[in-house]
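Anyone else keep sequences and structure tokens together like this?

Example one:
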Amino acid sequence: MSCGTTTGTSTIYELPASKPFSGFESLSPNFASIRRIFAAIVLACVVACAGPAGFAQTGAIMIAIDKMAPGAAPADFEFARTGQGGPGQWAVAADASAATGLAIEQTSTDRTDYRFPLAIYRPVSASNVDVTVRFKAVAGKVDQAGGVAVRLIDADNYYVVRANALEDNVRFYRVVKGRREELEGANTKVRANEWHQLGLRAEGQRFTITFDGKQLFTATDRTIVGAGKVALWTKADSVTRFDRIEIRTLP
């Protein structure tokens, strides 16, 4: 480095020529890596915040009865009752004719007529939902019924479709403040001790009911419009088994 030359009273310093700074060029690949890492962190945060329940709200869920313990209460369910009489008794039962060899069964034989045991599936809450379930009416003197409820706010407010092997019909009800009111129905053969598929699709004010894979009827109602739980349903002394419970949330 030159110390400079003196011209009159001023000293002029001469600095060596420098090359343009190339640090950003050398760092650019690192910036791309940092960007990728940052995006991964953001995605991980979103997943963590959503949690299992967040993902349970979209798409289709087939309840894994085969992962449940025989003789125990079914996992991820809570239990309630509409009407009078004793509580329901829900357990996982061995059944060689079930899809996975296990079914969810209501075994109480309390004969109180206005009594509707519920097994409420906790992980899902939705307004628009498509639910299908297989059920088998095993026994019952007062009733041999099985059903599925949607938009369940509590044990006294929900919609339910049920099939009855003693009456050979399928009925769709609105339950408000514990009072059940029929909205629509159809007569069809419901055989005891045989598996049948029952479906309920709720979209806005429109409800579509299917039985054994065929559309049976539709109904419209605006009473309960918000999100609610999905539940299995029986009546009076019905001993009923359920399997292949599929819940699909809709936009």
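And example two:
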Amino acid sequence: MITAPDIFSIAPLDWLGLLCAVVGGGIIGIERQVCGKPVGIRTSALICVGAYIFVTVANTVSNGSTDNSRIIGQVVTGVGFLGAGVMMARDGIVVGVTSAATIWVQAAIGILIASGYRLSGIKLSLFTVAILVGVNLLERTFKLFQRGVHQQFAQVRNRRQKMDFGTCPTLQTVGATAEEPYLNTPVSEVRQ
């Protein structure tokens, strides 16, 4: 007969480790979602949980002749592909690099939690959020931190915000579709 402990057992995983992985990823995911970034709470928590599951199962099924670090290496490689999926080029500027980096950190936190360092995983999640928030504050406060790609991206964003086509019905635009309304470019700019 099946008993209550059998029903609630997730062996070889444990509920505390799973909860720590969800919280560790969720902490970072909250910051990303509040900032409107592509990797939010759900994705962040799942990345940590996935890494936790892979490493915990690898540690459980290992014997003296296997190398568990190979599983960690495969997690890092797989998560690298996931991170590459959130990066894109827009107006000659690569965006999404920070989101890709946070995906890698989330997988590392999941690996850390699976290795038995649960509290360290939560602390690193908080540290990661501190980095993300702190650098955002520095970039908004000091012009010194707005150079390079950030400055180019801000210029493109400001240019798009200044172009208001609703007030001039005679101005023709090209490239605008329902899916990509940000491509509203005046015909005069296209011909230049």
